[in-house]
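Quarterly update from the structural biology core.
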Amino acid sequence: MASTRLTRRKLHLVMLLLLALLTISCGNASTQAVPEQATSTPLQSLRSLAQARGMYIGTVVNVDALQSEEQYGEVLAREFNIVTPEVSLKFDATEPELNQYNFDRGDTIVAFAKAHNMQVRGHTLVWYRALPSWLTAGKFSRSELMQILRDHIFTEVSHYRGQITIWDVVNEAVNNDGTLQDSIWLRGIGPDYIDWAFRWAHEANPQARLFYNEPPPKRCADQRRWSTNACRHRLIPRSPGCAGEHAAIKCTWPGSANYRNGCENPG
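Predicted structure, tokenized:
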């Protein structure tokens, strides 16, 4: 009998001890602070970062995507403060037939840019590619080709006067070895077509900034040297102009370091 009482007391003590431990554990759990959720800082747009430093940051614009994809336009307006029409201002798009012009697609991009306080870079007036068949298949004299090129430059630049103040007048006119790129303009007019193009663009809009444009060359030295000398000795003395480069690059590309070095040391 005494043994039974002792066993019951021990069991009672064990139950009290377990209850006390459970109470302490629950108490500690109830008093622990619930960690606050980390608040994420909104990322600044590329546009705001560039504008804070007095810079432009831009991209090419595909007018079909702009007209059909709402998110495309939202990203453009949020991230960039200057845009370049991808193909809408090139020769074949703006003059599909001789003396018949169509600026509808270019006008769409310009209107979008104006609505979102963006600059437009006009690209491009003179190139060896993106030419209409009536031009490439035609038989024109030198004077006729000069008239065609002059009329095209005057018509396009004048159409956008007051709306586009930056133009790539001549695009990719130089080979990697520094020689001039073969083109209908070089064959039909001669090397001075570059001078004439800049002169006509300046006459059409004296306030516009005019550029000779090149992609980053595979063999930089000769091509960049030609571009530099062209500005110093061919373009600038006779018409206002600058040289620029366009590029589609990724920082992870093997050649990106070379491109950066070439930009910093133009030669």
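The first helix runs from residue 2 to 31.
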